[in-house]
## 1
Amino acid sequence: MPEHARQLLSRLIAREVRSRFQGSASGWIWLILNPLLLLAVYSFVFGVIFKARVPPGLEMPFVAWLAVALWPWLMFSEGVLRGAQAIRDHAALISKVAMPREMLVLASVSAVFILHLTGYAAVIAVLAAIGVDLNWPGLPLLLLSLSTLFVLTVGLALALSAIQVYVRDLEQALPTVFMFWFFLTPILYAPSLLPDEYAAWLDWNPMTWWMTEIRSALLYNQILPGWPFLALLAGSLLMLWLGRIVFSRLSPYFEDFL
Amino acid sequence: MNAPLMRLDGVSKRYPPTVRSGERMRAFWQLLWRGQAQGGTSVLEDVSFDIIPGESLGIIGSNGAGKSTLLKVITGVLEPTRGEIQKRGSVAALLELGAGFDPEYTGFDNLRMNAAFLGLSRAQVEERLDDILSFADIGDSIHEPVKHYSSGMVVRLGFAVVASVRPDLLITDEVLAVGDESFQKKCIRWIEGYLADGGTMMMVSHNMYQVQKLCRHALWLEAGRVARYGDVFDVTQSYLAWHERKHARQESPAHGRNENAPYRIDRMVLSPANDGSTVVAMGGRLDVRLELSSPDERPPVAVVGVVRADGTPIYGVGTDHDGVEPVEIAPGRYAIEISFSDLPLLPGGYAARAHALDSEGLRMHDTVEETFTVTGKTREVGLVRLKHEWRRP
């Protein structure tokens, strides 16, 4: 990336991050508090009411099991939703300034990842502090998995942001789709707890693979990337490639449709 | 001569139909599979010209002629539907109202963002910050969100950022009309300095005086096509003349043409003729030849005059005033010629108007008009050049 584009991107990201804090007196508190409340609700409903269990062989509270996967999911879903909105949100800019437009999507997704990575780091630190047994040597693998998740998110957000300029319905549909997707992904439950005929279906959901890999790195004793990681890498690169094709086809005409 | 900074070759732009969702979907699939959408309204048609370094080009035309679209295509905000734009690695800065500012952010934020769009690095922005702020001269408002700015303040800030960048190509869209008197002067001084240092500029303006003052060439767009391109005086004058004529047509559609009049003008020829239109240089000579018919053996009286394109009479004279008579060229047909030399008319659009009167010169029977254009390089205003001399007492 040329120096000029890099500077532009970092400025866009900085602005995006800052805008999350602006206007509300305690913006950063909400940023941490919201996922924490979500975590509290889910662990109460599923851990206490439904008595959801961690898969056999793991000795940890349900909340730890959940938190490890919840934050990556938030990065992914919020990244895609915000990224998909990026072009429409910056309509005024796009019709006035000639700039590489994918920067807007990239900045949007990056800002989400930066913010949630911070939250994720804090949560992991808290888990370690309360004595949850984490697999520290798996940390590099976790970061690699999150990197592929970032690539996937950017690819998907690029495609959706471009399509959304033409197909406005997407804006209404996406949050619902992501809610379904959340429950169809083994975040609140372990695939091994499902009856076999359902568990097989889960493998068709790419997010299952990411969640499994992330948990393997942080909770089980996996250290070296195996072939599932290569699948994640290939899948995310494929999505990025597709997203870029769709974006580059559609982006020259954004101004006509915005 | 230098290689062009930018070359437009047959550039056309169509806006696809976007109102109904069905149309949007169709356009979407067409763009996705074939990279091109069909239908829509044409805004630019086959526009070609070069921008050479050091050029100053004014773009003029009525509202909706495609001026702003052309600028957007040039800056790269819009992709042309057909045609090609070749750019030689250069920064083109478009300056228009709102110039890419996000109203939610403060002026300061937008300043930094805008500078980044124009390719300034962080260090460069810090370095030039004082210059930018003093040029914009909006005081503490810089820390307010842009949505609280007046349009003049937005332009001030936008211009200040662009001025600090010194782009290779400066493109301004009607910005000077917004600022107050003192800021306009500042901008014009800056633009003059920029042009004198070899900068290249394109400007859209409805202020012909400004265009003539700042530009060397002009491009007149009409309904998306290049109506005229060339020297700024020629183009702006024919543009103004066209407007006056259009105005005059709306005011008085009929001109008292009377096919059955007993005394008629059969033909009026102006010279020098120039592919169908008459063009006279200021101070040159205009010849008018009239052919008239009369129902009896007596020659009619002819009156010939010059009116401004909107119909305001400037001068008129009759054959009977000067005691001349048209000569008979065939039974019942007469001809007369008149020439106006040292034409003192200022550049613009005019018409020669002729009337046929009865032989006593009492009743006007027929009226014919032929338009002509006076060209010249002058910024005098009005209709005619009055003899004058300046004295310093």
Note: The mean pLDDT of chain B is 84.
## 2
Amino acid sequence: MNDLLNQLRLVSDWLTSSQQWHGAEGIPQRLLEHLTYSGVSLLFAALIGLTFGLLVGHTGRGAFAVASVANLARAIPTFGLVVLVVTLAGLSTTPVLIALTALAVPPILINTFEGVRGVDPATRDAARGVGMTEWEVLVKVEVPMALPLILLGLRVAAIQIVATATVAAYPGLGGLGRFIVDGLSRNDYELVIGGSTVVVVLALLVQIAFTALRRVIVSPGLRVSASRS
Amino acid sequence: MNDSEPLIRWGWIGDHAGELADYTGVHLRLGLLPVLFGLIISIPLGILCHRWRWLYPPVLTVNNILYSIPSLALFMIFVKYTGLTERTVMIPLTLYTLSVLVPNVVDGLASVPEPVRQAAIAMGFGPVRRVVQVELPIAVPVVIAGVRVAAVSSISLVAVGQLIGQGGLGYYITRGLQLDFPTPIVTAIALIMLLALTTDALLVLAQRLLTPWSRSKVTTS
Amino acid sequence: MIRFDAVSKNYPNGTTAVDELSLELAEGGITVLVGPSGCGKTTTLRMINRMVEPTAGTVSLRGQDIRDVHAPELRRGIGYVIQHAGLFPHRTILDNIATVPLLLGWSKKKARARAAELLELVGLPAEMATRYPNQLSGGQQQRVGVARALGADPPVLLMDEPFSAVDPIVRAELQAEFIRLQKELHKTIVFVTHDIDEAIKLGDNIAVFRTGGKLAQFDTPERLLAHPADDFVAGFVGQDRGIRRLSFVKAGEVPLREGPVLTTTTAVAQARATDEPWILVVDDARRPLGWVEAAAIPQGGTLADATLTPLGHTFSLVGDSARAALDAALLSPSRLAVGVDVDGAVIGVVDAYELSAVIAVAKAEAAAGTTDGGDA
């Protein structure tokens, strides 16, 4: 218990010392870097994942490929991939962003696909029956119904990106992981635990943001608890 | 990196075969023991959540929060208590598996058709016997689906543990970066994926053996 | 055998599923509980094996208050069959049937031998033993459900809409099989259905429930149709209960007249002389061949030359009911039903108007047996 209090004091000391809030090595700068990496890769991953997920889900073609890609992607060690990209392409942001994007596509792809595929065929039939075009069936029926799963996919992807962006500090990139990696190499435990705390807070904010988003944009008629897959 | 350096030097793998095998063993232990521990925790926890539904939302929320915490941060938080040991890697990995396993145990139990549950009660199964002999066996396919996801993710996450010196094959990832030499990195990634996919395949096989009833097709006769 | 004493089931939200039910079910018969949905029939059934506990009153089985028996133990001694069979998908058919014997601690060998017997009893081939439930059709699964309920040879069988999830043809098959089985086994059966036809077909006694969990009437099928206790029961047994009651009158009791029956060798002139619009043509053994319209027969020759109109169907004086006779009359081109004996030889004919007299007689007989005189 004492230990925990000590740790909390350590964190609050670190967080409140003014040097953490200024300059290129301060929390705002690191947070901005982290959010930039995460935001840009999530955006691209969403573009790719949603496009293919909706396409495959609506047409039903390529379902096996989607399942295989998702399964294979889960097995890739993200840490290894980021390090490999840096080793091969040198230390710059773009290759790492590409790696982060590649890691985030599968959860978005598979959940979007499953969401659209999971729409009751009778509902789809009814939509065509009332005279909707294929595009209208997709946009007005399938997407709204698939929304809980699509959001789940985006949430899982976002959480993965935020976590992996932390690891990206190891081969030399910025972001919140810097505090942890630098603290480790300098044996500065205060830095490590302070950095970890900021990362945890960010991750929780992402989680909360998605929960809130879900409340706002998912139709109340569909609010069943979507389980993670 | 030197431009003439190939992505992989096969000779290096041959030279390090014994060492690679050792690290593979460690990696498997670090990746799979958490799944086992996760299962040991999830089954009773899932049964409780299924029985008392009010328990499920808070458990799910805690799971989701744990799952969203980046592994590196979680490792660091545990370093203080468990040092730079294997436990520091395995405890967070165990916590991560819960976010997949608990919902799958609950969903698996919920997948037991109501008539089957009613029939079991009516035939005189007591509550414990009903869970053990009827509900859990029927939940096996859904639970194994969760174990597959948990095992694959866990095996690929172990590598991050290398940052506290306990990463199994992750050792070759940091080593390759230090030496600016891609072969160990590529080898490690390939081996980790191989381990993950082999484990996945073995679990599929295990499910077939455990649930001969679920793959039998409906025949009309 | 099974006794309900002022049994009620109320739920905390204020609904009453069963209201002060008192009922005694005889040993060795089929009692059908029937009524619209929400009438408490299933709740009543489930109180017998303590799947539902009554709020007030006592349920007793062979004179013993069932609350004195540990619930799982009580249930192992009562067979239970439900709508969707509820077979264990992870166990083979044989192991499904052996469930209760195994729970009772029989040896595996003995339990399986018993299960194999039951498989045969419900009319399933032995090779089904090693299959899994999802490899069977709905009707087959339901048979296995019945076999499983009979596992430990329980004296009491509870059946909750066991045949309502299968198609009508399979349902009729299962019902017939069930009647055959009961003739052999003489179980005390409580059977829940919402289908009044099924109730009349299977029940020795029928308890009609009304919404709100009140017993509206408890009677034999015949008396239920003849003397519905009130408008609710009359409405529930249906507008056509007059016709249904004919099911309980044996065709042998129907008064027949000789009718215009002539053999193929009869001369046409003679046939026309009968002054009947339709003539039934029979062979030497008096087996019916078809009807012929007298005015349409060509002059000269015998009836063998006439073009016959098909019979529709006949009714047998042995085995058929007056309902079959009425049906035959309505479908016949001459409006006459043809009654035949076991050999298929014509005994006589009857029309629908004459059949209505049978209903009147049946009514009067039923009235003579009543004490409430509630015949309307």
Note: The domain at 2-222 of chain A is CATH 1.10.3720.10 (MetI-like fold).
## 3
Amino acid sequence: METIKLTIDTKEVEVPKGTTINKAAKKLGIDIPTLCYMELKDMNIENKPGGCRLCVVEVQKRRNLAPSCSTNCEEGMVILTHTPRVLNARRTVMEFILSDHPKDCLVCPKSGNCELQSMAHRLGIRDIPGQEYAEMSTYRKDFSPSIIRDLDKCIMCRRCETMCNTVQTVGALSAVNRGFMAAVAPAFEQNLEFSTCTYCGQCVAVCPTGALTEVNHVPNVLRALADPTKTVIVQTAPAVRAALGEMFGMKPGTLVTGKMVTALRSLGFNYIFDTDFAADLTIMEEGTEFLDRLNRHLKGDKTARMPILTSCCPGWVNFFEEYFPDLKDVPSTSKSPQQMFGAIAKTYFADKIKVDRKDLVVVSIMPCLAKKYECQREEFSTDGNRDVDFSISTRELGEFIKQANIDLNNLEEGEFDDPMGESTGAGVIFGTTGGVIEAAVRTAYELQTGKKLERLDFTELRGLKGVRSATIDFDGLPINIGIAHGLGNARKLLDDVRAGKSQFHAIEVMACPGGCIGGGGQPLHHGNSEIIKARAAAIYAEDKSKPLRKSHENPFIIKLYKEFLDKPNSEKAHHLLHTKYFDKKKKIIVKQ
Amino acid sequence: MSSIKIELRNEDVAKIKEICTSFNNDPQELINVLHSCQEHFGYLPAEVQEVISGELVVPVAKIYGVVTFYSFFTMTPKGKHPISICLGTACYVRGAEKVLEEFKKELGLNVGQVTKDNKFSLSSLRCVGACGLAPVVLVGDKTYGRVAPDDVRNIIKEYD
């Protein structure tokens, strides 16, 4: 590889040809400020519009300052990153950005976690000259079931646009208009609700300011907890325990399962349950459905379509309903763990504790924003009563815990309640890309072959590569497995399925890069993919620490089938645990 | 979730598809496709953008972004006699803004609007390359030079 030598702030550095100045500086430990640039390393995600101009540096023998994020290094370059000229330019740029930004930091939902705020602090901005007479752009607020858009706070960094278009290929958001009227918006500036948005929340996950935030359901939960007529139960998704600690200053990848349970108990929930339990249940249903389809397919039954696609991820479900409605009979009909949990809680568990479903409030803690929309879907209600009443994100839970004067750091380790708190390692790994299919393989293998699985760690299914594939030997029967995370990667596999070219028997899709651990409701990673990797490691560590690591061995799942559901894919199971999908593609009606 | 219903006539859809095909349905040709469609329809309503989106496989949000970025593209229909006032530097310093104000007053329109009878529409543009005639007004293909606010009523009368 051809390399280049250059000098940055009097230090010499050698980098491969094509390296940008900001990356070369990073190699020297020089952190050039930026607001728009973002790179998620090893995940193939980069936002480089060269728009904010904060990263300008002085290049000797060049007249103009150069934006370091989009200027390539050249042999012998001499670069200075903190001359008076550079610092002045940076300050001016920042003052311009701030002059068109609301000054309500004290009450902004992003306060304390806002990159614009930290940048103003870092650059030592103490005044915004001309702010009394400077024009401010304004834009109406947009409330969707999951995401709030407050574009007064948008700085046009275009990160959301990159996530929505390049990474997710959802195409809901684009920069529209120009000048002061410029905004990032759906087509025809309609509300998000009427766009192609899947509510994956990746736009929210990367937004540096308070322009994109989640709909906050904590007040609803608080009201339910304070209502003596209600029994309030909570389920926690696997990815939450691997990230919640970050909100309390813990190192990324710190598992806080036990402390989280104690915190939830202090908040006043009557029963603390685990979505991992429902994940085990999902494996029973989805795994059985897979084997049924597979065996019929092997016998030549043309109605048994291969591959089967996982259906746990609501962003992904929204995506194929919008873009691949012609394939809506390909995904598994199994509900997501969140909804399976709700369906069992409001029937089996409500009967058990003799509480009417209307007095039972089910709250889910999710790393996800699409879950807020999912639990509001009509098909997941009975007589207007939702199976899952409220879904709050990891971030909202963190804020809630803080508001309740609880310091997560100093809590004892608690235990989930029975019967819906028991889970296996297979349920835990649902939180990371490749985890659902690995969990499914562990169970499907044993059910199909009748033999005990020798090894439980399918490392060939793990990792952060966008599209992965592996062939698993089911005792002589090769099973081809595909994995995609990020909807753009999923689209590639779906295009093959549509074209009849797919060689896979089963495909796992998670809408968010990294899977749920990188979800739109997680503590913000601010562009550091090491955080996502650390969470994945935590998830696999929890799996390894579990005495049971196969879903079909969960004693409470076995009991649930014995007492209530009969067997996987039984009529009752179908009624409660399976769903159907809808064609949501926009129709062009032709007037005659 | 998209729930907007789009209504277009069959021959309109066929025309848009024909235009897209003439550019090989190439997303890179988006601006040319938009030009041709605007030439045909007079403007680029949401429905037209939706059909183009399907043909070129470009998100409709992107297309809307392009349409709203370039001032040449418009989403409102033009009147039978589209009136454009040049607000380029030369015209501006010679009083084009006053001329524009007069047109607004006479027609009861804002820039980008059409009269109820679809007769006149009002728009502004930047420099038509006739700075020697500043301020310049275009009505359809006809150019009026050295226009004063007092001339406005007479210009409109020509089209009554």
Note: DSSP finds seven helices and five strands in chain B.
